[in-house]
Amino acid sequence: MPGKLKAKIVAGRHLPVMDRASDLTDAFVEVKFGNTTFKTDVCHKSLNPQWNSEWFKFEVDDEDLQDEPLQVTVLDHDTYSANDAIGKVYIDIDPLLCSEAASVISGWFPIYDTIHGIRGEINVLVKVELFNDLNRFRQSSCGVKFFCTTSIPRCYRAVMVHGFVEELVVNEDPEYQWIDRIRTPRASNEARQRLISLMSGELQRKIGLKVLEMGGNAVVGYLQCFDLEGESGLVVRAIGTACTLDKLSSGSAPNTNTHMHPNTAPASNACNSPSKDGKEPVFGEDLTSSSGPPTPFRALPTTSSSPPPFSPSKPCSRQSSSSDTDLSLTPKTGMGSGGSVGKEAGPLKTLLRQQTQTALEQREFPFFTLTSFPPGFLVHVGGVVSARSVKLLDRIHNPDEPETRDAWWEEIRQEIKSHAKALGCHAVVGYSESTSICEEVCILSASGTAAILNPRYMREGCLDIGITDHRFEEPSPPSCGFCHIPYDELNMPFPAQLTYCYLCRRQKVPDVLFTTIDLPPEAAVTGKGCLIQARLCRLKKKAQGEVNATAISNLLPFMEYELHTQLMNKLKLRSMNSLFGLHIQISVGENMLLGLASATGVYLTALPAPGGIQIAGKTPGELSNEHHILTIQKRINDTIAKNKELYQINPPKLFALDPEVFCGINMELTEEVVGSPIPEPRQRSRLFRSHSESSDEVSELDLSHGKKDAFVLEIDDTDAVEDIHSLLTDAPTPTGFYSCNTEIMPGINNWTSGVQMFTSVRVFRLSNANLTNQGLNKIFTDLCENLLKSFYFKLRSMIPCCLCQLNFTVAVPEEELIQVTVTAVAMTFDKDQTQEKTADKPPTKGGSETEEQLQFPLELCADSSSANCQPTSKISGVPESTNVSSRDRCSTWLELLRLKAHTMRRGSVKTSRRTQSLAHSVSSLERCSPLPEGRSRSLRSSRSFGGSSVTVVKMTPLSFLPGTRIIKYLGIINMFFIRETTSLREEGGVSGFLHTFIAEVFSMVRAHVAALGGNAVVSYSMKECMLMENPNKNQAQCLINVSGDAVICVRETDQEPTPSTTNIGHTSASATDEAT
Amino acid sequence: MTMELDVFVGNTTIMDEEVYQLWLDGYTVNDAVKVRMDGGVMEECEASADVLLSDTMDQYRTFQMCERLLHSPSKLGNQLLFQIPPHRQAMLIERYYTFDDAFVREVLGKKLSKGTKKDLDDIGAKTGVTLKSCRRQFDNFKRVFKVVEELKGPLVENIRHHFLLSDKLARDYAAIVFFANNRFETGKRKLQYLTFQDFAFCAGQLISNWTVGAVGEPSVLFPSFVCYMDVDLDKEFLQELKELKVLITDKDLLDQHKSLVCTALRGKTKAFNEMETNFKNLSRGLVNIAAKLTNTKDVRDFFIDLVEKFIEPCRSDRWTAADIRLYLTHYNNSAHILDTFKHQVVWDRYMGVVKSCIFKMYHD
Q1: Which region holds residue A710: left if phi is over 0, alpha if psi is between -120 and 50, else beta?
Q2: A121, A793, A823, A979: which to substitute to probe chain B, counting the most B Cβ within 10 Å?
Q3: Which GO terms describe its molecular function (chain B) (predicted)?
Q4: How many CB atoms are located within 10 Å of the residue A556 CB?
Q5: Which residue among A137, A525, A583, B235 has the highest number of C-beta atoms inside a 10 angstrom radius?
Q6: Euclidean distance between CA atoms A861 and A869, whole angstroms
Q7: Long-range contacts of B301-305 (CB under 8 A, 24+ apart)
Q8: CB within 8 Å: A790 and B80
């Protein structure tokens, strides 16, 4: 008897009128858990009944506690006929089973009915008492924490990342063809809701068991999905990353800003760390000291990834790639490490790497559902790996058992693993799985990013977010290290143009980089990012069974190829060189396939500038054609130029001269500090110079949209013309707006408090019977573009604002319908970036990035200091008071630079002087920034409003809320609802029906979070929004599944949790109001 | 691109005040889109007509869903379906209950019944208010009337408390309820020149001086025992008004009154002669109105009587507003000096209201 569940029914309000005669209701409540049911008294003739019941006690196994929801049913008492149900509330009590989460559930819950929607509210109190705390993990896994967040949750530190966990449960679907069935839809829908609630409870418990087996205590990046297979059953599956998390004491907030001085890791660490056992605190003392004032001379060497001077390998020649590649194994043999080893000398490292490899290879699947990582975790990124497979659901031998589906997924995961190996990587990060089902055909998809991870994170006791980057060898600087290719240069898995990294100049980088993860916060980025989408429709013949499956299988590679081409073109059109958060969805319908790829384009400073797009005609002879091509070419060039301006992509051109000096200094310093004899430093710096010269050429090329590097589009037929047109018809985002589909927007990191999460659904009916692929593409593209335009318009009062985590989902619910569902969050930000940098601890992940970026502007300033110094004269008018903070930070920078200069003096006097002037120019730049407009707005918007008794709950698909600090995770929210109607017209058609339903779902999520004591949902997502309609019968039905993490967050400045009726939610709206 | 389905739902409900006003004014979606286009909102964010249409539809849907809650505004504060910041809630309520003066002028004093509702299309046509908006306004009047009708306590407070309205709006509703309850005649041709605000002012005067609730504050000790109603006139007071008749029936008293007033007025106004000649007529008029108020029918005609018996004669003699003020002040005060006149309290209670009503009503 490991647990006692107690529930108390307090009161109801706003109940519907159930008795027409009296216009009142005689309500009572049934409380059910498992097979036990309690009833309250009937509260006669009241729409606001006060039951104030006793505590209903359920004595149950903790296994049941995990699986079952508490079921609260409100009924209208009827003396003569059967009691009428008013509605139900399902309360997931999982958060109460974890000591660190919520301790009581108490609050008003909307009473929900599948036909009538929300009908009043009920106030419920729930508590759990768990017994024999020690020996309770057998069938149950109470206490394992679940997080939807795909990064290490804010108030925890990861002690260890164990790896991939997955589970899948199958059951018979109570109803798979709702409209044709005879039984009452309400009964079957309620059965379905309850079943799915049970199944996800069971799934979570089973995954929890696996985590405990691995020695972990939490699942991060938990992703649960439903497959409504129809006749073969209902599948609930989930994947996640098992971790051991440690709660940070409430006083010390997780310092997300560990990169204040990202290069402070001692250089020597990199090589003299022979520790085989990560637990050994080899550098313990060293670490604590380095967290103090930075020691610049040590700092610098790590920015360059130069091999440690006394490393046994060949010293410092033009890298040891050639020799190492000899040793390297070809990817197919499974090691795949050669390529990466190629850039890092030293057998010790190879040893470590091999350790990791074995550590990871012992695991069945070295997959991680995380998309952002503690600093230093990610070493290199190879590229996107994905696998798809088409299956026939009616071929499942034993549909009630999970074996067949398990085997399917196993197969796909193996494929992903081997793809990763081919890229020279031993792990897959940002991993996700999805399905698309149409009748009996099912497409299973999996994708992720092949990567090389830091070995230390795989072993016990060495992972610490706070100071990680000091502890680990720093094979390459964090701002560019992950871009360096992990695969073998001479044995590349795919054709790519490699160049030396534009940041460190030491290692090779590809010309473009695609990933499914978030942009690492420490990455160096030029300009801002933007959402890039590729959209594609392909018609297919209607078919059955095997034929159909084969047709789809044959189409898939073409679709992937075309989506890829589109992405590449659009990327170049925006003058960017990498994609983050890439998500490719392929959806199957009866007569067509839809493909939608979304990603956030970024200009990574480490990667070469993209060449332009060149149009070439196949028949150059024709004059008219030539002219046509010329005009298109001009349009493309104009667009590229415009985009560069829009996204502020100005790769530092002067930089090309600078880093050489920079590197030179590094090297000389290394030499001095470590005192190792590097034979020809001069020669080496010359070597670097030659690199930078080559980069000069590139940037020149880039200006003219180059000839060599240009991407050539051939116009040989009308299709190509169409393609180019569609390429150019993507409307630019209106001024004041930015968009991305990742956690953080590259280039923006000073969020203000305005937050508006929204969901939008559109369904388009294809009316034309004779549609071509071209026509379909156009329709689909317009559909997506119009959606975006609509968002910009609706949210115009939030400008300047960024749409983050734009998550598009496409579906073909019926033969002639295309459905697009979008969930995203609009966040306001401060236009003036420099001001916000002064904040001592930026709340967002992006915060750390500013420090990184600064390095470049700094170098830039140095060379153009004469120009930059001029504005100083103009600044006098700026009021002093606004600059206090900025001067403060300047002084720290000055100190830092002075220190730098001091150490440099020994090497070269000339450079030190330059650094001084550099510091001046920086401070002058900082000062001339005026007080931002956005800031004053945010101040205004934070005024409070009194009165309301309803807790404001903010929701966001991101893992954080700007301007706030998460102080507690209260548990996972995972809710599934079905809504049906038989009076579609009366409810305002499908739009009215769905609008109400989505609003209801939001309100139920908010109510549950508020009852847990929370005031926000982070990592919110709408996994499923499946709409079926039958207008002729005046009927419709919709299923929605949402999930997220319930949290308590406080404003950055506050220490104590704000009371339940905080006004944080209002601020967003009031910011919205300002402009209306 | 017309959509089969097109919805946008924000966690914090997004509402555009401009669109809300269009919705309240009864514009159809298409008309609203036209108005917005002309308003230049398109240029603001490079929007197209499609975008505008979709946005307008979304907003209209949201308002329709909210309308149910707006019918009992206190629910809006603790409902869970829409997350609306309190100041936005206040705006929604205030705007929803705001009415057109032109419209309310037409229904003022009429019975808020189905019969009147049938005439709404005529009223709409006459006032230029859309039928939809007429219905909303009419239903608001009815709803407020129904709730407040049976409630004890001060009328304005009750309205403000139950409907969370601003003081100004609550006072206007009190006037509407008061007029509807007492069925004051306001529709006659002679009263057409009066605006709603004129009547609202008069209603305020009547409510605060002539109803049962006006007599005194509820006792602190037994607030529940003081069951006064603000909606009905004080019957006792109306009875007492009959006593004022002595001012015109007693010839001595009438002459005395006249001479007192004339002495005071002499040399102070150009209209002195007219005042002197008309004194008896005017005095008879005012006192007769008072004496007749026990009849419900005559209560209804209170305003028309004021106009016919006092305002019109004065206007035909071209009295200025200052003349009226001067005359009525002395007319009222002089009665106190009459030693045989014993009904000073009732006289003041009556004349105080009549005076301020006439001041308000004496204009073109």
Answers
A1: beta
A2: A793
A3: fibroblast growth factor binding
A4: 20
A5: A525
A6: 9
A7: B301/B185, B302/B184, B303/B184, B303/B185, B303/B186, B303/B191, B303/B194, B303/B199, B303/B202, B303/B357, B303/B361, B304/B185, B304/B188, B304/B190, B304/B191
A8: no
- Close Cβ partners of A784 (under 8 Å, ≥ 6 residues apart): A533, A535, A596, A808, A820
Phi and psi angles of residue B107, each rounded to the nearest 5 degrees, phi first:
-100, 0
Judge whether B341 and B347 are in contact, CB under 8 Å. yes
Q: Is the pLDDT of residue A253 over 90?
A: no
- Angle subtended at Cα A591 by Cα A588 and Cα A593, rounded to the nearest 5 degrees: 35
CA angle in degrees (0–180, nearest 5) for B216-B219-B223:
115
Residues of chain A with C-beta less than 8 angstroms from the C-beta of B12: 756, 1065, 1068-1069, 1072
Does any CB of chain A come closer than 8 Å to the CB of residue B43?
no
Q: Which two tokens stand for residue A734?
A: 């209106």
The neighbour count for residue A28, using CB atoms within 10 Å, is 22
CA pair distance A915, A918, nearest whole angstrom: 5
B335: left (phi over 0), alpha (psi -120 to 50) or beta: alpha
Burial of B246 (0-12, 13-18, 19+ CB in 10 A): middle
A580: buried, middle or exposed (CB in 10 Å: 19+, 13-18, 0-12)?
Answer: buried
Distances (CA, A) of A382 to A419, A531, A533, A604, A746: 10, 22, 21, 15, 20
User: Is A1006 close to B62, i.e. CB distance below 8 A?
Assistant: no
* SS3 category, A815: coil
Residue type, A1028: M
How many pairs of residues across A and B have Cβ atoms under 8 Å apart?
Answer: 161
Q: What angle is formed at CA A159 by the lines to CA A158 and CA A165, rounded to 5 degrees? A: 70
A44 or A934: which leads in pLDDT: A44
The strand pair at A513-514 and A508-509 is best described as unpaired
CB contact B224 to A (< 8 Å): no
Q: Which of B19, B71, B83, B89 to mutate: most A Cβ within 10 Å?
A: B83
Q: Does A786 sit within 8 Å of B50, measured CB to CB?
A: yes
Interval A681-700 mean pLDDT: 31
Note the pLDDT tens digit of each residue in A425-459: 889 999 999 999 988 899 999 999 999 888 776 65
Residues in chain B with CB shorter than 8 Å from the CB of A765 are 4
Residue B31, classified by CB atoms within 10 Å of its CB into exposed (0-12), middle (13-18) or buried (19+), is middle
In this prediction, residue A333 carries a pLDDT of: 30
Instruction: Check if B10 contacts A (Cβ < 8 Å).
Output: yes
Q: What is the pTM of this model?
A: 0.79
Q: Which residues of A touch B6 (CB under 8 A)?
A: 761-763, 991
- In B, minimum Cα distance to A760 occurs at B8
Do B1 and A786 lie within an 8 Å CB cutoff? yes
- Tell me the HSE value of A629 on the side-chain side, using a 13 A CA sphere: 21
Cα distances (angstroms) measured from residue A430 to each of A611, A742, A822, A845, B265: 28, 12, 20, 17, 95
Cβ proximity of A584 and A434 under 8 Å: no
Kind of pairing between the strands at A801-811 and A737-739 = parallel
Residue A62 pLDDT? 76
Q: Residue A533: pLDDT above 70?
A: yes
Look at phi and psi of residue A194 and say left if phi exceeds 0, alpha if psi is from -120 to 50, else beta: alpha
Alpha carbon distance B250, A778 (integer Å): 95
* A455 in Cβ contact with A378 (< 8 Å): no
Which residues lie across from A535 on neighbouring strands? A596
**Alpha-helical segments (H) within A928-1020:** 933-941, 989-1011
Structure confidence at residue A745 (pLDDT):
85
The residues pairing with A226 across neighbouring beta strands, listed in sequence order, are: A236
* Paired residues of A761 in beta bridges: A821, B7
Q: Please, which pLDDT band fits residue A398 given cuts at 50, 70 and 90? A: confident
pLDDT at B89: 93
B8: nearest CB among A14, A790, A1002: A790
